[in-house]
Amino acid sequence: MGTIDMDPKLNDLSQILPRVLVVSRRTVRKNKFVDFVGEYHLDLIVRYGCVPVIVPRVTGVHMLLESFKPIHGVLLCEGEDIDPSLYESEISSLSPEELQEIRETHASDTAIDKEKDSIELGLAKLCLEQNIPYLGICRGSQILNVACGGTLYLDLEKELTNKLPEERRTMHIDYDNYDGHRHVVRIVENSPLHSWFKDSLDGENMEILVNSYHHQGVKRLAQRFVPMAFAADGLMEGFYDPDAYNPEEGKFIMGLQFHPERMRQHDLDEFDYPGCPAAYQEFAKAVIAYQKKLNSSLSVPKTLKLDSEMENKRKMLVRSFSLAKYMYVRGAPGKNPSKESELEVGAEFLEVNDH
């Protein structure tokens, strides 16, 4: 069977395109579990020069995360509610009746997936420990906050919205207008979000409209993070670590509660704002820089690859030493046999290394 000649430059893809890990989500299709990842995320990862590596949320994968290395970036996105036991240090103020109502209203989200929790928290902590670029979208932002000691609202409507005056209330999910629903967020000045959306802001008006698909959100922000945007009800819609944000140097730790990748018309590829894909673009920039930095730190001295002219000279030298050795052994006239052992060592060394 013939072999396919591969471009040597493609032999080690890990040295060419950086790898971004994305954890799948589970659904049921034809009476069996199926893993999937939204294509909007994957399209943008590929568009900006990275390779998406899908991590399946199957039993035991949380113990195999080191096997996915090299990891140059992690993108965590939507999914079910995070297990409250991972962040709630005190008993919820919600009654059993309220909790049951939440489960019925948000049935698809409240079905906790502990395996996905374990995998994603493990990846988030790996990123934080090794300074691997991390972008969290929706649930992915909540995972990041929980991984750093922050907490979440179990249900925004019952724990936040209903306690506010009507003019400050925000609808964070609308099942009747799922993809079309938008609400206002106010962007924090001089934040990364500000730089991405500045061309769409009207003077001192720092507001944009974002989509919203969640009934939970950040309650107490972990200490290391700084807010980037707020909804009218005060809910944090974006945050980042300013000490770990410099895409050109491979630094990027950020969470966005909204979905910039989905802020577009269903049948069009045009985004609501030019700044919508910027989070992915800057994340990819950081991933590429991190890969270069990682490859540089892992590189070890390699055998010098000589050009053809020098290689020919080296082989000639080997033959000369071999011939000289032979002449000394035969006792050629005018030669000093006392030097034979020294020459022998040199000739043998060159012959051994003649490969």
UniProtKB/TrEMBL annotation:
GO molecular function: hydrolase activity, acting on carbon-nitrogen (but not peptide) bonds, in linear amides
Highest taxon listed in the record's lineage: Eukaryota
InterPro entries: Class_I_gatase-like, Peptidase_C26, PuuD-like
SUPFAM superfamilies xref list: Class I glutamine amidotransferase-like (SSF52317)
Sorted UniProt keywords: Glutamine amidotransferase
GO cellular component annotations of the record: cytosol
PANTHER family xref list: GLUTAMINE AMIDOTRANSFERASE PB2B2.05-RELATED (PTHR43235)
Protein name: Class I glutamine amidotransferase-like
